[in-house]
From TrEMBL:
PANTHER family: REVERSE TRANSCRIPTASES
Coiled-coil ranges (or none): none
Protein name: Endonuclease-reverse transcriptase
CDD domains registered for this protein in UniProt: RT_nLTR_like
UniProt entry tagged with the keyword Nucleotide-binding: no
Domain Reverse transcriptase residues, every copy: 249-479
Single Gene Ontology MF annotation: endonuclease activity
Source taxon at top rank: Eukaryota
The keyword Nuclease belongs to this UniProt entry's keyword annotation: yes
Keywords: Endonuclease, Hydrolase, Nuclease, Nucleotidyltransferase, RNA-directed DNA polymerase, Transferase
């Protein structure tokens, strides 16, 4: 099989990400000094994303100390760290001496006391959180007390024929092959135009960039570029002006920075010890700076797409959730039971890897049909045409492979794009059905309830409506 992976310099990815104490950036004094450092690093330079990323990283190293992160948080207590440092020095001097042995005992005693104190404090916080009705906070504290129990990957990996692979190079090649197959498309690709449409959308305003930066989440893993949301937020007005310059360049040329188009894919086993690539959950890490411009595009896109999304869609829609969808289905069931003169048939469909199989050409056509400006569609086309991914394999990465289908995981525009495409498909299905198919509620026929890709199809007769609507949905959704 001929793989589409691109040969590239892997040394950049092998650079270990520094574990810096980004909490320091919340301090107003540190944040002001950080902003001044970023301004100094940018002085006299043409603002591009690599220059801004280097300035943010350099300023962070200057103002955020490197911390030793550990799963055992109590070890970071000053008393424990002081004794651990003394023991390390004593081990270098004379690891068999009495001082070293005594320090070992002292470290164990102090760490044990710190652990008990830490767990007692967490238990008290969990109890107080439960009494105040903060369910989410309570569960988070319980997880900290009980410890993380994530599934562990198996030793080695299976190739496509089921044979075991144990060598590091072969395992990396297997993951490249799997990623290429997962995101490759048999349909002809769509190449966007090199030049933007004649009618350009208004340029991005500084107020839009400030609002997008304010919405960035903190405490999230950084992408391949190593920048985080905390760095961008702490940059203040200097970063706002720099992002305005970078965004204006993308707005005019459609050329996205390479860091913004790359995704680092992390694989997590769904089943402990699994050795099958398909039984791993993939999580993508994106550049946080790219989310600033994408948030602006998402807000402008929503004005054209959201009015087209049907009321039956409860996923990725503000003010709706799973509880609303469950309540709707429950009311339909109760109404049918009370009448006792109708049947009710429900079919629950969950399509495998639905987000990874969206056809790009259909997606762009759907957006244009909804009245989306050609310029916004062109910007997204350019982003998707350049999008690539690498899979992290232990401390290494595979070669790059392109995303030829599917919406980008972790991208804030993806939920809106998926809903647009899914709604267009079910509109085609609806045109082939009877006007009174489904359950009648308030004089309106409801024949489906959706939460993202989870679809519940509703029919009053298995022979008359159910078989036809189910088969049509499968036909359209498999395209």
């Amino acid at each position: 099989m001929k793989l589409k992976g691109r040969s590239w310099n892997n040394k950049k990815l092998l650079t270990k990400k520094l574990k810096l104490n980004l909490e320091q950036l919340k301090d107003p004094v540190t944040a002001a000094a950080f902003e001044s450092s970023v301004k100094g690093h940018l002085k006299g330079k043409d603002v591009t994303w690599p220059v801004l990323a280097d300035a943010l990283t350099s300023a962070t190293k200057e103002h955020c100390p490197v911390v030793r992160k550990t799963e055992k948080s109590w070890i970071n207590e000053p008393d424990c760290q002081d004794l651990i440092d003394q023991r390390r020095q004593a081990k270098i001097t004379n690891f068999q001496g009495a001082d070293y042995r005594n320090l070992c005992k002292s470290v164990k005693t102090v760490c044990r006391k710190a652990k008990r104190k830490r767990l007692a404090g967490l238990s008290a916080e969990a109890d107080q959180s439960f009494r105040s009705g903060n369910t989410k906070g309570t569960y988070q504290l319980i997880k900290q007390i009980s410890g993380r129990r994530s599934p562990q990957p198996g030793i080695g990996i299976k190739d496509k024929n089921g044979e075991m692979l144990y060598e590091a190079d072969k395992i990396k090649d297997r993951w490249l092959e799997y990623g290429t197959q997962l995101f490759s498309s048999d349909l002809p690709g769509h190449t966007p135009g090199e030049h933007p449409p004649e009618a350009l959308e208004p340029e991005v305003m500084p107020s839009e960039i400030r609002a997008a930066i304010k919405k960035l989440k903190v405490g999230k893993a950084a992408g391949l570029d190593g920048t985080s949301g905390e760095m961008i937020k702490a940059g203040g007005e200097i970063v706002v002006q720099a992002m305005k310059t970078i965004s204006d360049n993308i707005w005019r040329t459609g050329v996205w920075p390479s860091d913004w188009t790359q995704s680092e894919i992390i694989t997590l086993p769904k089943v402990p010890g699994t050795q099958d690539c398909s039984k791993h959950r993939t999580i993508s890490l994106l550049c946080h700076a790219s989310k600033v411009l994408l948030e602006v595009i998402r807000n402008r896109l929503a004005h054209f797409v959201m009015p087209q999304i049907a009321e039956e869609q409860f996923g990725f829609v503000a003010g709706k959730g799973t509880t609303d969808a469950i309540l709707t289905i429950r009311n339909i069931i109760e109404k049918t039971v009370k009448r006792q003169d109708q049947q009710l048939w429900l079919m629950f469909d969950d399509y495998s890897k639905a987000f990874d199989t969206v056809n790009h050409a259909v997606l762009w056509k759907t957006l244009l049909d909804y009245g989306t400006p050609k310029h916004l569609v062109w910007l997204l086309e350019k982003l998707y045409s350049e999008a690539t991914g690498v899979i992290r394999v232990e401390d290494n990465h595979t070669d790059q492979f392109p995303f030829e289908k599917g919406v980008r995981q972790g991208c804030i525009v993806s939920p809106l794009l998926f809903n647009a495409c899914g709604d267009a498909i079910l509109r085609q299905v609806k045109e082939t059905l009877d006007e009174r198919s489904g359950s009648i509620v308030g004089g309106r026929a409801i024949w489906n309830i959706r939460y993202a890709d989870d679809t519940t199809l509703i029919a009053r007769s298995k022979t008359k409506y159910c078989d036809s609507s189910f088969s049509l949905c499968r036909q359209y959704l498999s395209k």
